[in-house]
Design goal:
The complex is a heterodimer of chains A (about 350) and B (about 475). Chain A has four helices and 20 strands. Chain A is mainly beta. Chain B has one domain. Chain B is globular, with a radius of gyration of 22 Å. The chains are: A mainly beta (about 350), B alpha/beta (about 475).
Chain lengths: ~350, ~475
């Protein structure tokens, strides 16, 4: 079946084919993939038949429906403490079309860091995960996701959640390997001073395709969002980034920023970007910027003059783009894991 | 008590006069093959054009209404009169021969005076027909052709028109391009021969007088190799309680190393649906400069497009959009980089007030063969009050690694810090805010000839009083 996902909140010309994506020949999702973890002290795990958090998601209703039809259990991780230890969820996808459903709940004044490590046992396969979150007052949820999948793997990663007053969501995503990747996040910044911080890095090669849709929905006064996207395209790879900062009437004092930086490394790559700001409130500040291209000639000349070959310069700069985001991961052991993946 | 600033709406009283069109010839309301045939007969079209119109009508009926952009539900084509010919119409070269009431209209709009003082030639269209067209002798002596499109269609340039007409904007492009292809009437044809530089601008002015009518003029400009032209387009209409429609089409062919500056001050009345299509094709080393001020209309869909077809071709797009009460102005630009070392520069400003909605929409496409191309875009939006809306929807599609693309956008209100700074330098708050708002729209003003910049400032009609916010 074909499934429409990642639709932007305000449509533009259809000929650009950027309003949404129709994923062709999507397989029905059947059963859960294996996930290993140990729950740190202070975090309570529950399993439910359905999601208990009511929220929109970045990839949208069609993707939610697809996952719901898989009838997998929803694993819920909840905390009321400031949990220092990272909840590490190691996903091992097999060659079947699998689904996983996760809820993350951080109560008032609590903190939780979750690391999702997506790996595949097979070169090819399909996997989907939907993560919903709920962040209480003055609470902070950090979600770190690293994707390192088979070269023919297709992966759907759908996130959505709601913030209470002064609730902060930090989302760090690294897309390092995999064939077709579909990502989306919706953050409901409906409470005063609620905050979203998103940092995404990707490295695509061959005929890899990454399709993204990120929606920061501001209705809360003085709500904040900062979306940074940095990536490298090689060979015939293709990427589409949709980022929306949606200032609704009443979100006075809100500030939103999005920035994209793309390094193009081969002549057959294709980069599509649509950074949207919707503004229905006077007292806001919204900015977006994009910088897309090859390496700066001056930098190339300087590095070549220091005896570094062109190919080595590109390798170095590509890794540096990913590491610049990876280095913002607070946990050294996760940073080290990413470094090892980049060296593979 | 802090007094709220009121940024006044554009004073439209200048444009709201009209005269009765009881003696004008009109086709019936609506859009049928018979009406299209009737227009074609009235225009004395060559056979190929009649067929072209009927095929366009077929396309119009096939293509859906856009599912993006502002609502056009208030526009019912069954109520629109697509062809209105003023009484005693004939195209003349002397203002004295123009029927008195029509001449009065253009005199109130200052067109004859502008022609005398600052233009190389003028075309004036009233409803569906050109009523006046003239070009200065010295410009004509350089071989510059500036005439109405229909004369050109029957005269010595007939083959040139057939070769270029709706080739850049085919009727299949979108629903209102198809509509234009079916019912177009009036408009200008300009040809600037190789190497000729037209030092002072040409202007076409479009006036839509009849209520419930549509205006569908076609502008075709060919600037040959190494030539230069500045063309100015102005438009206005009195306000009615029924919807009016403007679905014009502008096709610009910019030759090798040629430059065309195309300036528009659009000031349609606020019952107007402005669904206009403008497109330029730029050859090697050529340049198109779009200067656009959008002030009028109830709803606008306006995105001048540049196709950079030859190596080193360039485009600049500079615009300001001012959306006030009852207006939903969806404006922007499209650029396609289709050859190596092409460059584009986009610089826009939007102001929303009194419940007005402005949307900046753009597309920058860099194709695989456009190696070494560069594009830079800067768009800024100013929200003047808390009942208005401003959206920014830019898209970039880059299909080569050898390109340098930059884009930045900002949305916000008048900065308190800037006001504070200016006040610390001795300005009153009122003056400081006025200065900031005027400065915000200055990107277009400074690109226009002085007299048009003054007109634009009058149009903005900003009246600052007290403090905004």
């Amino acid at each position: 079946m074909d499934v429409k996902v990642n639709q932007i909140p305000a449509l533009t010309w259809n000929w650009l084919r950027m309003n949404e994506l129709t994923v062709k020949e999507v397989k029905a999702l059947q059963g859960e993939s294996s996930v290993s973890y140990s729950t740190p002290a202070g975090i309570v795990e529950k399993s439910n038949q359905d999601f208990t958090i009511d929220t929109k998601t970045g990839m949208g209703e069609n993707m939610e429906k697809l996952l719901k039809e898989s009838a997998v259990l929803v694993h819920s991780f909840e905390t009321s403490d400031k949990v220092q230890e990272v909840l590490k969820l190691d996903y091992k996808f097999d060659g079947n079309a699998t689904a996983n459903a996760v809820e993350l709940k951080v109560a008032d004044n609590a903190e939780m860091t979750v690391f999702m490590d997506f790996r595949s046992e097979e070169e090819a396969g399909d996997a989907a995960i939907e993560t919903r979150y709920e962040i209480g007052e003055n609470a902070h949820l950090t979600l770190i996701q690293v994707q390192y999948l088979g070269d023919k793997f297709r992966f759907y990663n759908n996130i959505g959640g709601e913030h209470a007053e002064n609730g902060k969501f930090t989302l760090i995503q690294l897309v390092l390997k995999g064939d077709q990747s579909y990502y989306g996040n919706y953050s409901g910044l409906h409470a005063k001073k609620s905050e979203l911080e998103t940092k995404i890095a990707y490295m695509l090669k061959d005929e890899n395709f990454l399709d993204m849709n990120y929606d920061a929905d501001h209705t809360g006064k003085k709500s904040l969002c900062d979306i940074q996207v940095s990536g490298v395209l090689r060979n015939q790879s293709r990427k589409l980034f949709r980022g929306t900062i949606d200032f609704h009437r009443g979100c006075a004092g809100a500030v939103g920023a999005e920035m994209e930086d793309v390094l193009l490394m081969d002549e057959s790559v294709r980069n599509q970007t649509i950074p949207i700001i919707l503004c229905d409130e006077e007292d806001v500040s919204g900015t977006h910027g994009a910088s897309i291209g090859r390496l700066d000639e001056g930098m190339m000349f300087y590095m070549q003059s220091r005896g570094i070959k062109e190919e080595a310069i590109y390798e170095m700069m590509a890794k540096a783009k990913i590491e610049a985001i990876a280095n913002q991961i607070p946990q050294e052991e996760i940073r080290e894991e990413v470094r090892q993946l980049l060296e593979k | 008590m802090k007094e709220k600033t009121r940024v006044e709406d554009i004073d439209r009283s200048l444009y709201d006069f009209r005269f009765e069109e009881k003696d004008a010839f009109k086709v019936e309301e609506g859009l049928t093959p018979d009406i299209v045939r009737q227009i074609s007969k009235e225009k004395n079209d060559p056979e190929w054009m009649t067929e072209f119109r009927l095929k366009s009508l077929e396309k119009y009926n096939e293509i859906p209404v856009p599912d993006w952009g502002p609502s056009i539900e208030g526009l019912d084509m069954n109520n629109i009169v697509t062809y209105v010919r003023p009484k005693d119409n004939k195209m003349v070269k002397d203002w004295e021969e123009v029927p008195t009431d029509i001449r009065d209209t253009f005199q109130k709009l200052g067109i004859p005076q502008a022609e005398r003082e600052s233009l190389a030639g003028v075309g004036a269209q009233f409803d569906s027909e050109l009523v006046y067209h003239n070009v200065k002798d010295e410009v004509a002596a350089q071989g510059v052709i500036y005439t109405d499109l229909e004369s050109a269609l029957h005269g010595e340039y007939a083959d040139m028109i057939k070769e270029h007409f709706m080739k850049l904007v085919p009727p299949t492009d979108h629903k209102f391009a198809a509509l234009h292809g079916a019912v177009w009437s009036g408009g200008s044809f300009v040809y600037v021969p190789p190497g000729v530089s037209v030092e002072i601008p040409l202007q076409s002015y479009f006036r839509l007088n009849a209520p419930g009518a549509g205006q569908f003029e076609h502008t075709l400009i060919i600037v040959d190799e190494g030539a230069y032209l500045h063309f100015i387009e102005g438009c206005s209409a009195p306000k009615y309680n029924v919807a009016n429609l403007h679905a014009g089409c502008v096709e610009l062919f910019v030759g090798k190393n040629a430059t065309l500056r195309y300036s528009t001050i659009e000031n349609w009345s606020k019952n107007m649906y402005n669904l206009n299509t403008k497109r330029a094709r730029v050859e090697e080393g050529g340049k198109v400069e779009w200067i656009s001020g959008s002030f009028g209309s109830h709803v606008s869909y306006l995105y001048p497009m540049s196709v950079l077809q030859g190596e080193g071709a360039r485009c600049e797009f500079t615009s300001v959009t001012f959306a006030g009460h009852g207006q939903n102005l969806d404006t922007g630009t499209k650029v396609v980089h289709n050859a190596p070392n092409t460059s584009s520069y986009i610089n826009t400003r939007s102001i929303s007030k009194d419940g007005g909605i402005s949307t900046f929409r753009s597309a920058v496409v860099v194709n695989k063969n456009a190696k070494g191309s560069k594009s830079a875009a800067s768009c800024e939006s100013l929200m003047v009050d808390n009942i208005s809306r401003s959206d920014t929807i830019p898209a970039m599609d880059i299909r080569t690694d050898d390109a340098d693309i930059g884009h930045e956008a900002k949305i916000g209100r008048i900065s308190d810090e800037t006001v504070f700074y200016l006040m610390s330098r001795g300005m009153s708050e009122e003056d400081a805010r006025a200065l900031i708002v005027r400065g915000f729209a200055d990107n277009v003003g400074k690109e226009l000839p002085l007299e048009y910049a003054v007109e634009m400032n009058n149009l903005i009609g900003l009246e600052m009083k007290g403090s905004i916010g």
